[in-house]
Amino acid sequence: MRGNNRSRRRRIKVMMDRRLVENFDWSIVFLFFAISCLGLVSLYSALYTQIQIHPTRNLFVKQLIWFALGCLIFLATLFVDYHKLKKLAPWIYAATLLALAVVLIVGDGIKGSRRWLNIAGFNLQPSEFMKLALVLQLARMFSSQDVEPYPPLRQLIPAAGISLAPALLIVVEPDLGTSLCLLAVAFTMVFVLGIRWRYLLVITLVGLLSVYPLWHYGLKEYQRERIRTVLAPERDPMGSGYHTIQSKVAVGSGMMWGKGFLNGTQNKLRFLPEKHTDFIFSVWAEEWGFWGCSVMIALFFLFICASLRVAGRAKDRFGMLLVVGLTALVMWQALINIGMVIGLLPVVGITLPFVSYGGSSLLTLCAAVGLIENVSMRRYAFRPS
């Protein structure tokens, strides 16, 4: 009898493992690796001159190491049932929020910003990890049986507090772009859950009334200057408008087919600033032209669509909201970065997902892709909300 039970459990386990493999969404992995490979090609070109001058300070090799670690994290997230993260979400959020507070005290300052913690020789950016922690915590909160679609204001206020706390800490670093990205992701999750129209009207009204005090008292002078630059970058071509002007020149000079790999003049002659981080898309546009940009944007679009398909198939609200939040993270970062690069949005320091240099960002995004696949693999197992 005992042997029969053991055999039955073994058959159930084999069946479960087969279902995990059968529900694995290979399209998401393909798109993830495709975008990452294009990013590595573009990053190598952006860093090519620096590699020749300082071969010992090879950031491209560092990015390869980060990518390898990210792939390991991606694989690790597949083996942990995402439902178990629901209990851990508050602890992950609290630990990351503590790290954000610590970085303001003992963090490494670079170019006037204090965003990094040096751990064992690696600079880690807690604000990047907070993106994942916030999505987990909001998904947990909104998946509670007490929270129904179109929740009342009393259920939205705690979510607003959870979103604003890290956003305010990140603004102090200062990092306005990441702070806005966090709030955009939180709003997307609330919008998908369902938000009453009168709340939207109140939010819009409050936003409009906040423009004047935020402009005069909330933003620093360099941040106001970046917003003015969007309207007229030529007013200060060697100062606040320099980044936008050089980026637009690089994008425009690529024309239809681009100048070819390693042949971008704005890149090679070092006119393009922050070309391996914020303006990596400019490097790609100059070398591969309109069609190259179309391919990269199409890959991002397909990745977002494939991820939203996973959200639609999720069997519980926690899984659905988790995938929506992680997809929104990629979507908003890509939209803001590309809009920034082509001069439609102010320069706010948002990197291009999977493409720009940055270890913390890449590790977070690889974990996000792993969690999206995690939900897809376990969509056969119904769990109550």
TrEMBL record:
Catalytic activity: [GlcNAc-(1->4)-Mur2Ac(oyl-L-Ala-gamma-D-Glu-L-Lys-D-Ala-D-Ala)](n)-di-trans,octa-cis-undecaprenyl diphosphate + beta-D-GlcNAc-(1->4)-Mur2Ac(oyl-L-Ala-gamma-D-Glu-L-Lys-D-Ala-D-Ala)-di-trans,octa-cis-undecaprenyl diphosphate = [GlcNAc-(1->4)-Mur2Ac(oyl-L-Ala-gamma-D-Glu-L-Lys-D-Ala-D-Ala)](n+1)-di-trans,octa-cis-undecaprenyl diphosphate + di-trans,octa-cis-undecaprenyl diphosphate + H(+)
Single biological process term from Gene Ontology: cell wall organization
Keyword Zinc-finger: no
Localisation: Cell membrane; Membrane
Entry keyword set: Cell membrane, Cell shape, Cell wall biogenesis/degradation, Glycosyltransferase, Membrane, Peptidoglycan synthesis, Transferase, Transmembrane, Transmembrane helix
Family, as annotated: Belongs to the SEDS family. MrdB/RodA subfamily.
Name the UniProt record assigns to this protein: Peptidoglycan glycosyltransferase RodA
Provenance organism: Desulfacinum infernum
